[in-house]
Amino acid sequence: MSDQAFVDAVFSELFSEHFYHYKDALARPVDGGQDAYARAGNALALLSAGQRDDVVEFLKVVIADSASVILGTLDGVHFPGDLEGECIVRLDGEEIQGDLQDMFIQKAQDHGIYN
Description:
Blueprint: H1 2-26, H2 36-44, H3 49-75, E1 90-91, E2 94-95, H4 100-110
Antiparallel strand pairs: 1-2
């Protein structure tokens, strides 16, 4: 069950905290700032409310796909670049890799992230 707890914790961190931080940052009023958040928010301000919502919701797909690559690498089923070798992931001494990516993708699908 540690593998599910691990996936649940990562998922929660990404989608219950980080996503809303990005969403709030991108909703700030246009201010001409030059940091990444200000530039993205200023660009989004040129869109209709519906289009902005579509772009912001797409961030969930980007976040899920990024986490999937990392978890697949830890599981030993995805090998980015020329990376080879075996990762061993343990939580409280128990090996948990092998199904992390699948569990994460299923959780993302259950939450409608890919819809």
